[in-house]
Amino acid sequence: EPEVTQTPSHQVTQMGQEVILRCVPISNHLYFYWYRQILGQKVEFLVSFYNNEISEKSEIFDDQFSVERPDGSNFTLKIRSTKLEDSAMYFCASGLQMNTEAFFGQGTRLTVV
Amino acid sequence: GQQLNQSPQSMFIQEGEDVSMNCTSSSIFNTWLWYKQDPGEGPVLLIALYKAGELTSNGRLTAQFGITRKDSFLNISASIPSDVGIYFCAGLIGTSYDKVIFGPGTSLSVIP
């Protein structure tokens, strides 16, 4: 069964460093999303991406964050100058259409020290 | 902004018991979703509800979309140990998964 895959599963980085979280969405999907879940809290929407551009973003998704689809298969989330409070699970999701189910990856745990 | 509340926050039940959990909001949602998250995994969609009053089942799971469009419940019948996890309700303002708003979750523990 096709699935969304994310790498790495766990990333530890020093405060102030840049990180890139990678996702391979399901191959025929057109809509891509990033969500964040701080430990013990709810899942929060960050950004959605369609047709090579951001279609929606939340207040959390400030200038520190950027997304890119550098090729036909990867979808990345870049966090510039990480802060301690960026520590969280980051989930990538993809969907075939805007109004169909978005499938989640298993997440990348980011720890900023 | 839109917020969802879930109750209870956590539950400890005996295997074989039925479970009921709720999700409420002060805002109207056009689509309600129920997800389950296992430890270290991403959320997996269990049930999607698209119409007010809709009652939908998926195996031992049953969920309903409230008439007011401001609430939903999820029932699990005859619980088993693998039902353990966190259950999130989520709402869509429209029908687009462009921005899904999640509730805080109900943690379910099943005692064998």
Describe how the helices and strands are arranged:
The complex is a heterodimer of chains A (113) and B (112).
Chain A: E1 5-7, E2 10-13, E3 19-24, E4 31-37, E5 43-50, E6 53-57, E7 65-68, E8 75-79, E9 88-95, E10 102-104, E11 108-112
Chain B: E1 4-7, E2 10-14, E3 19-25, E4 31-37, E5 44-49, E6 55-58, E7 61-65, E8 71-76, E9 85-92, E10 101-102, E11 106-111
Parallel strand pairs in B: 2-11
Antiparallel strand pairs in B: 1-3, 3-8, 4-5, 4-9, 6-7, 7-8, 9-10, 9-11
Quickly describe the structure.
Chain A is mainly beta. Helix content of chain A is 0%, strand content 51%. Chain A has strands at 5-7, 10-13, 19-24, 31-37, 43-50, 53-57, 65-68, 75-79, 88-95, 102-104, 108-112.
Walk me through the structure.
Chain A has 113 residues and is mainly beta. Chain A has no helices and 11 strands. In chain A, strands 2, 4, 5, 6, 9, 10 and 11 form a 7-stranded mixed sheet that branches. Chain A has a 4-stranded antiparallel sheet with strand order 1-3-8-7, with no helix packed on it. In chain A, strand 9 and strand 10 form a beta hairpin. Chain A is globular, with a radius of gyration of 13 Å. The mean pLDDT of chain A is 94. With 112 residues, chain B is mainly β. Chain B contains no helices and 11 strands. In chain B, the strands form 2 sheets. In chain B, strands 2, 4, 5, 9, 10 and 11 form a 6-stranded mixed sheet that branches. Chain B has a 5-stranded antiparallel sheet with strand order 1-3-8-7-6, with no helix packed on it.
